[in-house]
Design a protein that fits this description.
45% of the residues lie in helices and 14% in strands. The chain is α/β, with parallel strands linked by helices and 476 residues long. The protein folds into two domains: 1-36 and 189-378 and 421-431 and 454-476, Rossmann fold (3-Layer(aba) Sandwich), CATH 3.40.50; 39-187, Rossmann fold (3-Layer(aba) Sandwich). The strands form two sheets. A seven-stranded mixed β-sheet has the order 10-9-8-7-11-12-13, sandwiched between helices. Helix 4 (119-134) crosses helix 5 and helix 6 (194-206) packs across helix 8. The radius of gyration is 23 Å and the shape is globular. The protein starts with 8 loop residues before the first helix and ends with a helix. Bound molecules: glutamic acid. The site of glutamic acid has 11 residues, from helix 12.
Length: 476
């Protein structure tokens, strides 16, 4: 246990920012302009529930408007506070810059435990919160576009979109005021899985870089790697599911609210998720050992640790005992600045949040573009693509007949090749490309300079350079 004081979440993000700008050559004025949060709006509103008026506190913070709209989720959690929302808004700025989504950074939060309310009550609270934000243009297709975060999902986004549309009846782009909507309300295929999918693509890209793997003392493929995941919410669930089902990774630990599950032989992620839905927790799950003090499982031996829940879970208190050689930050801010330092000194490789969990905002970007263009991706070209492929298949069939037994087409080649890509495939392809490209720019920065010693600093430098370039171009 260390007796150094832990900075707040926002201070932690600022420390990481400062570490990066110390290696850059920015004019001090510009550095300060980029670092500070432009504005935070606090709203307190009342909703009559169960015969009584309840007052709720919510925030929407805008960190940087170098590009508009600004973008970032809305979180529902009892502990939401201004410091946290500002830290998360700052991370959105750097995240969007790193993965080249043309947005500034923003974030919102409502102090509420959604588990304590009925669906109909949550709808009234959400609509009222949305009304308060929309009337100040803090929800707006051209200015500020929220999305899901902890405690919110498709359902809340649909209410927000509808509330905005009711208030702006002639806005043809009303649907683009929020992303993460259900597919039948202007959403896009693949948004729910996007952040977890992005974590998978990020790890795949890391495993395509043998030099980076060597730094973590890892070799080979994802297949058989032991993974511990903290939080089986939307992000952790999808990441763990895809990594185990598609890449052969072994999920040896799952940490949840009511303790952790541990099994060195691997845990079936889908079975745990189904168990949680039925039993409201992991306790009692039959095929793994239950550890009541879940946090100690963060310190278990494994190849990859995926914190996918709250910020600050790896802190000065436990950082020295973390054994994983590779940590991928699926959550925002899971490692405090102090813990980051301890881990770096130990040689732990950290794939940082501003990159690792950018899959969500990337697919949000696709959804926003889809809403503004008012057409589903692939609708124009899909059949044309199929027709062109048909020409090749016809030729190959002719060859097949001509060559007789000497050569035959692979049985499912024709079906696979003929099928034009649907929206989900296009979204995944765009996400994969984004995650690869961003990794490469970060990794290039990491390797091209001796004074850039870790991936987080590299990611921050790439992001800050882009934000700075955009401010310079504006001539402020
Ligand atoms: N809340 C997510 C994040 O932290 C998604 C934001 C978005 O899609 O705008 O990145």
């Amino acid at each position: 246990m260390s007796n150094r004081a832990e900075p707040s979440f926002r201070e932690s993000v600022d420390l990481m920012f400062n570490r990066a700008v110390a290696l850059m050559d920015l004019p001090p004025g510009l550095e300060e302009k980029i670092r500070v949060c432009n504005a935070t709006y606090t709203v307190r509103f009342g909703v009559r529930l169960r015969g009584q008026v309840h007052t709720f506190t919510g925030y929407r913070s805008v960190h940087s408007e170098h590009m508009e709209p600004v973008k970032g989720g809305i979180r529902y959690a009892p502990e939401v506070n201004q410091d946290e929302v500002e830290a998360l808004a700052a991370l959105m700025t750097y995240k969007c810059a790193l993965v080249e989504t043309p947005f500034g950074g923003s974030k919102g939060g409502l102090c509420i435990d959604p588990r304590q309310y009925e669906e109909e009550e949550l709808e009234r609270i959400t609509r009222r919160f949305a009304y308060e934000l929309a009337k100040r243009d803090l929800i707006h297709p051209a200015q500020n576009v929220p999305a899901p975060d902890m405690g919110t999902g498709e359902r809340e986004m649909a209410w927000i979109a509808d509330q905005y549309a009711r208030m702006n009846t002639t806005d043809i782009n009303a649907r683009a005021c929020v992303t993460g909507k259900p597919p039948n309300a202007g959403g896009i295929a693949g948004r729910v899985e996007a952040t977890g999918r992005g974590v998978q693509y990020a790890l795949r890209e890391f495993f395509r870089h043998p030099d980076d793997m060597k730094k973590a003392g890892l070799e080979g493929k994802l297949d058989g790697k032991r993974v511990i995941v903290q939080g089986l919410g939307n992000v952790g669930y999808h990441a763990a599911k895809f990594l185990s089902e598609e890449d052969g990774a072994l999920i040896t630990g799952i940490i949840e609210r009511d303790g952790a599950l541990f099994n060195p032989a691997g845990i079936n992620v889908q079975a745990v998720r189904d168990w949680i839905v039925r039993h409201d927790g992991v306790t009692g799950f039959p095929d793994a050992r239950h550890v009541a003090d879940g946090a100690v499982v963060l310190e278990e031996e494994c190849d990859i640790l995926i914190p996918a829940a709250l910020e600050g879970v790896i802190s000065l208190d436990n950082a020295a005992r973390i054994k994983a050689p590779l940590i991928i930050e699926a959550a925002n801010g899971p490692i405090t600045a102090g813990a980051d330092e301890i881990l770096r000194e130990k040689g732990t490789i950290i794939i940082p949040d501003l990159y690792a969990n950018a899959g969500g905002v990337t697919v949000s970007y696709f959804e926003w573009v889809k809403n503004l263009s008012h057409i589903r991706f692939g609708r124009l070209q899909r059949r044309q693509e199929e027709a062109r492929h048909q020409l090749v298949v016809d030729e190959l069939e002719r060859l097949d007949r001509y060559l007789g037994d000497a050569w035959t087409m692979t049985p499912d080649f024709k079906t696979k090749y003929l099928r034009g890509a649907d929206e989900l495939e296009l979204v995944r392809s765009g996400l994969d490309d984004t995650m690869r490209t961003a990794y490469q720019s970060m990794s290039e920065m990491w390797h091209s300079r001796d004074d850039v010693r870790d991936m987080r600093t590299a990611g921050f430098i790439v992001a800050i350079e882009r934000v700075a370039a955009s401010y310079r171009a504006k001539g402020i």
